[in-house]
């Protein structure tokens, strides 16, 4: 069947390492297209539209937008840069016919640049390199460009691909230029390059309908919405189609509505034709990798996979004495609430798995990393859920009768003087060095292969060891046979022996040998963790004990106790901190740490049970 290329359409994905400016650049393209009301464009990163994306300043979900330039429709897919969401990037590249690889003009290519570029080359895309953030005072655009070239070479790009088009830009200042020494006042050169260098989609208009589901979203009104690119044929609302499923079976369904991307949203159309990226509404249970195809002549496309989860956590009800207490406490506390919410999450969070656990009221929730799962926990807490979450555990696999565990590639950049402490931290966690490059700038670039469980909590430790200088990035590498034991937390914790309100007098005594997590006036309960012991053992303490009243006024000093501010932990930090016998208690108003066994007797029993496993 002869294939043709559309000239009225471009499908382009934007890929890069985390924070290299993808979303800012897409914003800039949107603004420059002049197709928006001002009110829509007042914020930065309009595309990072959910709360957590805004607060964390990262993109979590890939997003489609569309604009038109010189009479051509341009579909742009913004992708997340964080390694936990790398699988998402890989999938959405299926919708693109070209991509922009952004490289920070100071940092040059970074580990995730390599990962996403490799994926783009694997699906046969010819990337355009955008050396971005050229407005940075420390920008070194030419070096960044030549480092990008080296990366293409390392990845085995063919000659045609090595001859990649490139351009310099600043998404934040809103311009693109062919000469980094000359600033312009428009992003147009980039749009022109997209029209010029990204091929229109190659299509077969007369072939049978073929569209692969590459992403899913969910609405409680219409259910799952399947997005993908039509490779051949066309599709109309009301049309009868079949979905080719993972097990090879066919499922007959009817499409209710066909929508295309339009600016920041979607609009229904009468027909979607080959080359279009469409969202299909009305399919019952579409899954990633299904081909939506012609019932008369079903032709499945090669199926894409969803990355397997590498990490799991126990989610269970909040069983602490403070559950549901206090102003602003959670509204959803039961295991049924949690189960329903997790089931709903599975509709569109494709890398997530949920299983019932053999422990009552508990679920095993698996995902792509601590960030992937903590985003879900944070979302739930904002929606009014309370829950307890166990220590993140890596998922082991039996391959040829031998237990394997996930290993990651850990990349660390540090000032050369801090290489020693980095090696120590990584070595203690069973990491092995892959290579080390000392640059001319006084920085050393180290790469390690490390068991994924060794990474849990490594960030804090590494930052402490290098006075905050280390820049760390990691991504899944492969499964290898189990490594040796990874050492546990060095310090024990202080466990409250009673329920009540924390008293300054008690803390003053405790802080002599501990780092405290609570402040006077705060509610605590028996079994709650209130601080970190300076030694390696756990200690039961009483943080609510008042000073004994005596007839004699004590002499001076203990009247006004001076307390160190309590250590505050983010949700991620808390998840990385706890050990096997501990939970993080998550409510809309608090994140607390606790022992799973609240009384000493419970804990003894539990330890015995654990020891016997
Ligand atoms: N100097 C400068 N800073 C920029 C530019 N573009 C983005 N930034 C800043 O870089 C940071 C990251 O920008 P984003 O656009 O969120 O980066 P991203 O690539 O979408 O990040 P992820 O989605 O998390 O991978 C923000 O603090 C931006 O303000 C630029 O052109 N120049
Ligand atoms: Mg982004």
Description:
This protein is α+β, with helices and mostly antiparallel strands. The strands form seven sheets. Strands 21, 22, 23, 24, 25, 31, 33, 35, 36, 37 and 38 form an eleven-stranded mixed β-sheet that branches. Strands 10, 11, 12, 14, 15, 16, 17, 19 and 20 form a nine-stranded antiparallel β-sheet that branches. It has a seven-stranded mixed β-sheet with strand order 3-4-2-5-6-7-8, sandwiched between helices. The longest helix has 14 residues, at 141-154. The radius of gyration is 27 Å and the shape is globular. The N and C termini lie far apart (61 Å). The site of magnesium ion has 4 residues, from helix 1.
Question: Would you kindly provide a brief summary of this structure?
Answer:
The protein is α+β, with helices and mostly antiparallel strands and 613 residues long.
Put simply, the count of helices is: 15
Shape: globular
Alpha carbon gap, first and last residue: 61 Å
Strand content: 25-35%
Biggest pleated sheet = 11 strands, mixed
Q: Mean pLDDT across all residues, rounded?
A: 89
Task: Output the keywords.
613 residues, alpha+beta, 11-stranded mixed beta sheet, 9-stranded antiparallel beta sheet, 15 helices, 38 strands, 31% strand, binds guanosine-5'-triphosphate, binds magnesium ion
């Amino acid at each position: 069947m002869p294939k043709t290329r559309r000239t009225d359409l471009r499908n382009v994905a934007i890929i890069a390492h985390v924070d290299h400016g993808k979303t800012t650049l897409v914003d800039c393209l949107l603004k420059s297209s002049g197709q928006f009301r001002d009110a829509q464009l007042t914020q930065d990163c309009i595309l990072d539209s959910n709360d957590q994306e805004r607060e964390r300043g990262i993109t979590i979900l890939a997003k489609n937008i569309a604009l038109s330039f010189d009479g051509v429709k341009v579909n742009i897919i913004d992708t997340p840069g964080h390694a936990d969401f790398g699988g998402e990037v890989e999938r959405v590249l299926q919708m693109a016919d070209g991509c922009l690889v952004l490289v920070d003009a100071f940092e040059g290519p970074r580990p995730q640049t390599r990962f996403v570029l490799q994926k783009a080359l694997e699906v046969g895309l010819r990337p355009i390199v955008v050396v971005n953030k050229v407005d940075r005072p420390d920008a070194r655009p030419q070096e960044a460009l030549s480092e990008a070239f080296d990366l293409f070479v390392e990845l085995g790009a063919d000659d045609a691909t090595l001859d990649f088009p490139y351009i310099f830009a600043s998404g934040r200042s809103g311009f693109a230029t062919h000469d980094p020494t000359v600033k312009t006042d428009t992003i147009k050169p980039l749009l022109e390059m997209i029209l010029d260098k990204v091929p229109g989609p190659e299509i077969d208009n007369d072939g049978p309908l073929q569209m692969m589901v590459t992403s899913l979203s969910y609405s409680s009104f219409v259910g799952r919405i399947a997005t993908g690119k039509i490779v051949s044929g066309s599709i109309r609302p009301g049309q009868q189609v079949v979905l080719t499923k993972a097990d090879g079976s066919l499922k007959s369904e009817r499409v209710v509505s066909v929508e295309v991307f339009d600016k920041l949203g979607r609009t229904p159309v009468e027909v979607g034709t080959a080359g279009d990226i469409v969202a299909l509404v009305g399919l019952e249970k579409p899954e990633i990798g299904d081909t939506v195809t012609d019932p008369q002549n079903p032709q499945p496309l090669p199926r894409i996979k969803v990355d397997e989860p590498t990490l799991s956590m126990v989610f269970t009800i909040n069983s602490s004495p403070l559950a549901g207490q206090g102003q602003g406490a959670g509204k959803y506390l039961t295991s049924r609430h949690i189960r329903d919410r997790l089931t709903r999450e599975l509709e569109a969070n494709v890398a997530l798995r949920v299983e019932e656990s053999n422990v009552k009221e508990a679920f095993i929730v698996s995902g792509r990393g601590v960030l992937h799962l903590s985003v879900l926990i944070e979302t739930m807490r904002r929606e009014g859920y309370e829950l307890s979450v166990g220590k993140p555990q890596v998922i082991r696999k039996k391959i040829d009768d031998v237990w394997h565990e996930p290993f990651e590639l850990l990349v660390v950049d540090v000032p050369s003087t801090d290489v020693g402490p980095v090696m120590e931290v990584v070595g203690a966690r069973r990491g092995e060095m892959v290579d080390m490059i000392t640059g001319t700038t006084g920085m050393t670039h180290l790469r390690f292969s490390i068991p994924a469980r060794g990474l849990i909590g490594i960030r804090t430790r590494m930052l402490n060891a290098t006075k905050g200088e280390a820049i760390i990035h990691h991504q899944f590498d492969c499964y290898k046979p189990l490594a040796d034991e990874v050492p546990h937390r060095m310090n024990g914790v202080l466990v409250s022996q009673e329920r009540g309100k924390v008293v300054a007098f008690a803390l003053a005594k405790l802080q002599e040998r501990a780092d405290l997590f609570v402040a006077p006036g705060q509610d605590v309960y028996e079994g709650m963790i209130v601080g970190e012991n300076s030694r390696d053992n756990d200690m039961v303490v009483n943080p609510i004990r008042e000073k004994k009243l005596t007839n004699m006024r004590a002499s001076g000093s203990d009247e006004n106790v001076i307390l160190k501010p309590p250590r505050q932990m983010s949700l991620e930090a808390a998840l990385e901190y706890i050990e096997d016998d501990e939970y993080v208690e998550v409510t809309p108003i608090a994140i607390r740490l606790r022992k799973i066994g609240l009384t000493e007797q419970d804990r003894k029993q539990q330890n015995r049970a654990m020891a016997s496993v």
